[in-house]
Design brief:
The protein is an alpha/beta fold and 509 residues long. The chain has 15 helices and 23 strands. Strand 14, helix 9 and strand 15 form a beta-alpha-beta unit. The termini are far apart. The N terminus is likely disordered.
């Protein structure tokens, strides 16, 4: 039992206590502190009490991972892959249970949390297949009786800091490729959604993962995340989160010459041209803007409309946004869940006011939902702004909420210019029946991902995921891009001439 203050109301609740996973043992944080995991749709629903860890806990986890690496790196990659395959099987069996846990702790509707678990399943199977590949190269040597090749080598202990919006899928993007490559891991899940990472790692344990190969340290960024980044025993860092925090992570890692993968913000544009299938584009806009309550780095936050179709598209989009059913995602009829916490509500509210002051026209939404069925959660109305100019803050800065801006353009070239005129470059979309414009958009849009006649969300695990400009630092998650981050290249030369041969020396032969 513990006492908890929520919305100015003190309640007593009995909840399960979760501990850190270090070296295969469940242990309390050295700080002696804990924090609650609260359902954003219902503040009376406490999923558990988690450890509020510090630097000493991180050091313990890194030491356990370093010890486990001595044997894990020697486990044949196909054997490591078999554990991932079994993990995929276990996740499949537990999909509904884990999806419901995720809806309770994160808020998004069940159809989406089932998809989140499915993405972890897909990643498990994909990376299991890589256990029999992990290809290097063989190449002719410039010398006689000499063999040359390159091979992938594991990095060592990898530190991982995961976000709350995909609390199982994104940890799987980080853990599974790292594991199949022979690394060991220390992961800090987001403080808003730790349970889904616990569920994911429990599946790995039940599939036969040895103790210490994956370690979980829960807590807050400055206390538990920062020590992971700066710890000298961590050989590489993978971070997904805001650009502001990512900049600090990248600078800290760079000071220690530590490889660092950063996946950060987005301000993603959907272009709808006058020849587009408008009904299809409307479906994509609604899903892209309000799926996951707009809390995706790939969310459709700008819709660039050709002037000829702008009025019709706007009217229909507003009507459909107003018709969305917002509420507790455990209800199968709900179409949009809550924002994750009060801070995100405040951010959405602040940007609505900024947009109004800049002259954008609020067409629907724009405020927190406070009626009877929304009083216990952090719900924000689906929000649409029209009359948005490309240089307004609402068109340039990431809101990370159910807020979409409509921007009009004269033609395709202007649409591309508007889409590219931001600091981010994650995901983009074009709706058009013109195949020439489709391929020009793929070529010219400054983004890591471009969709044609589909919204800006919907990445698949076997292709690289990431962006350009201030969205990331060039590394990719998903596909073979993840393998490139979690391995280093070693070149090997085998001389069987039985004599000294000197490369790059002209021998006259």
């Amino acid at each position: 039992m513990f006492r908890l203050l929520l919305r100015s109301k003190e309640i007593s609740v009995s909840v399960k206590l979760y501990k850190n996973l270090i070296g295969g043992q469940w242990v309390a944080a050295r700080t002696g502190k804990t924090f609650p995991n609260v359902n954003p749709a219902n503040s009376d629903d406490i999923l558990g009490e988690f450890q509020s860890s510090g630097a000493d806990d991180v050091s313990d986890a890194v030491a356990a991972a370093a010890e486990a690496w001595k044997t894990w790196r020697l486990t044949p990659a196909p054997k490591r892959a078999e554990i991932l395959f079994r993990t995929g099987e276990i996740l499949t069996q537990r999909k509904e249970e884990y999806a419901r846990d995720m809806t309770r702790e994160m808020g998004k509707v069940l159809s989406e949390t089932r998809g989140d678990v499915q993405e972890a399943i897909d990643t498990a199977y994909y990376m299991a297949g890589e256990g029999r590949r992990l290809f290097g190269q063989t190449t002719p040597s410039e010398l006689r009786s000499k063999f040359a090749m390159s091979i992938r080598m594991p990095v060592g202990v990898c530190g991982m800091i995961a976000p709350w919006n995909f609390p199982m899928a994104i940890p799987s993007w980080k853990l599974f490729p790292a594991l199949v490559c022979g690394n060991t891991c220390v992961i800090k899940p987001a403080e808003d959604t730790p349970l889904s990472t616990f569920n994911l790692v429990q599946a790995l344990i039940d599939a036969g993962l040895p103790p210490g190969v994956v370690n979980i340290v829960t807590g807050f960024g400055p206390d538990a995340g920062a020590p992971i980044v700066s710890h000298p025993g961590v050989r590489a860092v993978s971070f997904t989160g805001s650009s502001e925090v990512g900049r600090i992570v990248g600078q800290t890692a760079a000071a220690n010459f530590k490889p660092c993968s950063l996946e950060m913000g987005g301000k993603n544009a959907m272009i709808v041209l006058d020849d587009a299938n408008l009904d299809l584009a409307l479906d994509g806009a609604l899903w892209g803007a309000f799926g996951t309550t707009g809390q995706r780095c790939t969310a459709t936050s700008r819709i660039i409309l050709h002037r000829k179709i702008a009025s019709e598209f706007t009217e229909k989009l507003v009507a459909r946004a107003q018709a969305l059913k917002v509420g507790d995602g455990l209800d199968e009829s709900i179409q949009m869940g809550p924002q994750i916490n009060e801070q995100q509500i405040d951010t959405s509210t602040r940007y609505v006011e900024i947009a109004r002051k800049e002259g954008a026209k609020l067409l629907t939404g724009g405020s927190r939902l406070t009626d009877n069925c929304h009083t216990k959660g952090t719900f924000f109305a689906p929000t649409v702004f029209a009359g948005v100019k490309p240089q307004m803050r609402i068109a340039l800065e990431e809101v990370f909420g159910p807020v979409v801006s409509l921007i009009e353009c004269e033609n395709f070239d202007e649409a591309i210019e508007i889409a590219n005129g931001i600091q981010y470059g994650l995901s983009t979309a074009l709706y058009s029946r013109d195949v020439n414009k489709a391929f020009a958009a793929i070529r010219d849009l400054e983004a890591g991902i471009t969709y044609i006649n589909a919204p800006t969300i919907g990445a698949e695990v076997h292709l690289p995921f990431g962006g350009v400009k201030q969205t990331g630092n060039g590394h990719r998650e998903g596909g073979t891009g993840a393998l490139d981050f979690y391995t280093t290249w070693k070149s090997a030369y085998i001389d069987y001439s039985d004599k000294l041969q000197r490369a790059q020396i002209d021998t006259g032969e």
